[in-house]
Design goal:
Length: 151
C-alpha cells in the first residue's frame, strides 16, 4: 500500500513539473510587431482625438491610418499611411524592445528628415501602444500616442 502511495505521489509530482515547464514561449518583439496595424485610438497630447467606431471623433481621418511593418528575409520595410492620407515608405528597426525607429521614409514626413521614432509602451499579438518621441507638426506640435490593433 505504501508503495502505491509513493508511486502515485511521484506521478503527480512529475505531471505537475511537466505542466509548469511547458509554457508557451513568447515570440520576440521583432516578430510580434511585424504586421499591419490600424488605429484603435489616438491621443494628441492628453486629448483623445480618435476612437474607432466613435461618433464624436475630432480627427475622424485616423480611420485611414495604417502602419505596416514587414520583415521578409531580414529586409525590414515599412509603409505608413498618416492621418492626412499620405503614404510614406522606408525601413524600420528596433532599439531594444522599447523603441521603434522608422528610417529612410520617402517622401520625408514634414519636419522629420525621413526618420520617425516611437516608444513601444506595450505590445501583445493583437495590440501595440506607441508614443511618438518628437512633436508632430501636422497635429499642432503635440506628442501623440497611438493604440493600434491587428487587424
Amino acid at each position: 500500500m505504501r508503495k502505491s502511495y509513493a508511486l502515485l505521489w511521484c506521478s503527480i509530482m512529475m505531471l505537475g513539473l511537466v505542466a509548469v515547464g511547458c509554457k508557451d514561449k513568447v515570440k520576440p518583439v521583432s516578430e510580434r510587431i511585424a504586421k499591419a496595424w490600424t488605429a484603435e485610438s489616438v491621443k494628441h497630447g492628453a486629448t483623445v482625438v480618435y476612437t474607432r467606431g466613435g461618433s464624436g471623433n475630432i480627427e475622424a481621418a485616423y480611420s485611414g491610418f495604417r502602419l505596416t511593418l514587414t520583415n521578409s528575409a531580414g529586409a525590414k520595410t515599412v509603409s505608413l499611411t498618416d492621418v492626412d492620407g499620405k503614404t510614406f515608405t522606408g525601413n524600420w528597426d528596433l532599439e531594444g524592445d522599447t523603441k521603434l525607429v522608422l528610417t529612410n521614409l520617402t517622401p520625408a514626413p514634414t519636419g522629420s528628415g525621413g526618420k520617425l521614432e516611437f516608444t513601444i509602451n506595450s505590445i501583445d499579438d493583437a495590440k501595440v501602444v506607441l508614443t511618438r518621441l518628437t512633436a508632430s507638426p501636422k497635429t499642432g506640435g503635440t506628442i501623440n500616442e497611438y493604440t493600434l490593433t491587428n487587424p
